[in-house]
Amino acid sequence: MTYQQNRNMQQGRESGRPRFGGQSPAGNGLGPENAVITGLTSLQHLQPEDLVAIAEKAGKFFSENRIKTTQIRRIHEHVIRQVTRARTNKGESAKEIRLLKYHLAYAAGRERNMRPFSDFFSPVLDKVTGMEDLERFRQLFDAVLAYHKFYGSN
């Protein structure tokens, strides 16, 4: 199922499926986007057009909710470090990206406005099982950061 098909169902445009109202259980406003990702068997199955659409929605949401670029960049440093480590070790430590969850939890505990960011990326991290998933995760993170900046973050 593509991102757009899922959005149509979420908005009640197709019958037979319940509407979710746009909010995730965590209330971060990115429920449909999280549903697309959690519905995947593997993160590498996230289509490029869906990745871009999800990243744009998330980047805009985080910008509107005043998450600072520096806050995201701190987490981004850990992502890049882990990707580099996994590439060097021929993918052996790709699953270790899940350790990023505690960095997200710390950021959310330190700055309340980071909670939606943590709630969005934690389920995404659960989908990383190998090098291809790790690369797709990095692409999603980079795209969210780019759209966050595009929509006027500080």
Structural class: mainly alpha
Global geometry: globular
Spans of at least 5 consecutive residues whose pLDDT stays below 50 are 12-26
Summarize the helix and strand pattern as letters. Answer: HHHHHHH
Enumerate how many helices there are, as a single number: 7
Number of E strands: 0
How would you sum up the major sheet?
none
End-to-end separation in angstroms reads 35 Å
What would the average pLDDT be, to the nearest integer?
83
Count of all domains: 1
How helical, in percent, are the residues?
55-70%
Rg from alpha-carbon coordinates: 15 Å
- β-strand percent reads under 5%
Task: Please characterize this protein's 3D structure.
It contains seven helices and no strands. The protein is an all-alpha fold. It has one domain. Helix 4 runs antiparallel to helix 7. The longest helix has 20 residues. It is globular.
